[in-house]
């Protein structure tokens, strides 16, 4: 379980965690055996955090989604070694939101996050009146959702096969806050769930097993303009959503995910002969949905967790407001456009398939290199970024240092009110985002943009930019 108490020290330590009873796994955490504590920051304050590295390899602490300058961002250039401490003073200048923190060492983000160097951040804004359930642990719960693989003895493993290198790692068991299929007791009323997909690559399509309606009230960067009624919610890696669920009918219910199979990992269209091996699903079989499915379900339903309605009287608001106090600065028209192509291969196909050099993927034809600045951005100028992929594969695109608006996906324009402020967007075809930076990032500590499928990021699908 993740405690509400942030403290101000994060010690990256080794631990053991029994995901499966009787089978302790070797894990890492920030001040915990596995994962880190919930960090709760207040807008307008400064958070002093001291991160100590008690492991035997370099780590960082990246405040994913938070608007802080490059030298505080915890990107790859800010890696610090065993025995060292990094003590940033973070000015909290971000609307109320559910964010993410994790280690971000180039080439090691996947294994480090997998081991447990990750956690959730909640930002409160004393200037707004949050009309939603907000009693932490009573009617407001963090759900850090991850998939993990286990060997026959029940110990957590991270073995990347060829398919994992291509599509990103997928494990068979789903954890919520480090627990396999937990049960949560909730009051018989409105409950807010802050869901963070902290998986390395798995995409979830959340629903309740009885098909009940719920409301999405926030996305990555904070509150939406209005609560959105829905029965399903897709989250790619590193995306967050806050939802409000009504449990007043008192019936036990579970949160499930309709598995997005490999068919859903393709973005449609033919792969050509290079793609032959990608037509297989998890079991190495040709899926009957083939590779044509757009976010097609493979038909499997994964159990995520279950809810029991307790005897306690409902607390907090009895109904949802019709509008929410969303943060809505005007971005205006873009003064510049940039194009990014996510490349599955920057070298030969065979080298890519082998993947042992760890540098076969890239953006705009180049794998990530720590001392090359790929873009230079000016503060205060609104830009349109157009993201594409060179193969029919589903990716995500994450940008450090700001939140953005999604303008269009696959040529269709998107209603920003329905998506809100984002820092990760699914890329299944041409995707346009509108963004502006207020925080600076120097050549020594630039901001990153990358695919948040961590195996892609580690393989070089990342670039970096300064903001001056
Ligand atoms: Cu979640 Cu560049 O990070
Ligand atoms: Cu980030
Ligand atoms: Cu990717």
From TrEMBL:
Name of the protein this chain belongs to: Blue copper oxidase CueO
Keywords: Metal-binding, Oxidoreductase, Signal
UniProt keyword Transport, yes or no: no
A matching Pfam family: Cu-oxidase_2
A single MF term (Gene Ontology): copper ion binding
InterPro entries: Cu-oxidase-like_N (IPR011707), Cu-oxidase_C (IPR011706), Cu-oxidase_fam (IPR045087), Cu_oxidase_Cu_BS (IPR002355), Cupredoxin (IPR008972)
UniProt organism field: Palleronia abyssalis
PROSITE patterns: MULTICOPPER_OXIDASE2
Gene: cueO_2
Residue stretches making up the Plastocyanin-like domain: 18-127, 348-467
Entry annotated with the keyword Transferase: no
Lineage, opening ranks: Bacteria, Pseudomonadati, Pseudomonadota, Alphaproteobacteria, Rhodobacterales
Coiled coil, from the record: none
């Amino acid at each position: 379980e993740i405690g509400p108490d942030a403290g101000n020290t994060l010690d990256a330590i080794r631990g053991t965690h029994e995901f499966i009873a009787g089978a302790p796994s070797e894990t890492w955490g920030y001040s915990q055996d596995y994962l880190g504590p919930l960090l709760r920051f207040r807008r307008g304050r400064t958070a002093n955090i001291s991160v100590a590295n008690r492991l035997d390899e370099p780590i960082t602490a990246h405040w994913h989604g938070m608007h802080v300058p490059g030298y505080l961002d915890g990107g790859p250039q800010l890696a610090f070694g065993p025995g060292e401490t990094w003590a940033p003073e973070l000015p909290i200048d971000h609307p109320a939101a559910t964010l993410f923190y994790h280690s971000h060492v180039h080439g090691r983000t996947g294994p480090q996050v997998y081991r447990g160097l990750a956690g959730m951040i909640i930002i409160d804004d004393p200037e707004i009146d949050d009309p939603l359930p907000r009693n932490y642990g009573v009617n407001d719960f963090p759900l850090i959702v991850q998939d993990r693989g286990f060997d026959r003895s029940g110990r957590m493993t991270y073995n990347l096969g060829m398919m994992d290198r291509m599509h990103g790692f997928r494990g068979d068991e789903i954890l919520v806050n480090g627990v396999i299929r937990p049960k949560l007791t909730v009051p018989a009323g409105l409950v807010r769930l802050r869901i963070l997909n902290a998986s390395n690559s798995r995409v979830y399509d959340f629903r309740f097993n009885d098909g009940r309606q719920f409301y999405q009230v926030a996305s990555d960067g904070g509150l939406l303009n209005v609560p959105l009624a829905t029965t399903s919610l897709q989250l790619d890696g590193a995306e967050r959503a806050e939802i409000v669920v009504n449990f007043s009918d008192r019936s036990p219910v579970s949160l499930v995910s309709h598995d997005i199979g490999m068919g859903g990992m393709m973005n449609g269209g033919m792969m050509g002969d290079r793609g032959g091996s990608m037509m297989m699903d998890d079991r190495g079989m040709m899926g009957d949905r083939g590779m044509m499915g757009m976010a097609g379900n493979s038909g499997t339903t994964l159990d995520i967790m279950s809810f029991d309605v307790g005897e306690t009287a409902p607390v907090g608001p009895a109904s949802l407001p019709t509008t929410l106090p969303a943060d809505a600065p005007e971005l205006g028209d873009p003064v510049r456009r940039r194009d990014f192509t996510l490349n599955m291969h920057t070298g030969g196909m065979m080298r890519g398939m082998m993947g042992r050099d760890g540098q076969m993927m890239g953006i705009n034809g180049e794998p990530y290199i720590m001392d090359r600045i790929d873009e230079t951005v000016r503060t205060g100028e609104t830009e349109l970024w157009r993201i594409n992929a060179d193969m029919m594969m589903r990716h995500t695109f994450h940008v450090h240092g700001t939140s953005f608006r999604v303008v269009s996906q696959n040529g269709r324009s998107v209603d920003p009110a329905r998506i809100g402020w984002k820092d990760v967007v699914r890329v299944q075809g041409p995707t346009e985002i509108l963004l502006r930076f207020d925080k600076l990032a120097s050549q020594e500590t630039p901001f990153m943009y990358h695919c948040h499928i961590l195996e892609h990021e580690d393989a070089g699908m990342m670039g970096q930019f300064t903001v001056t």
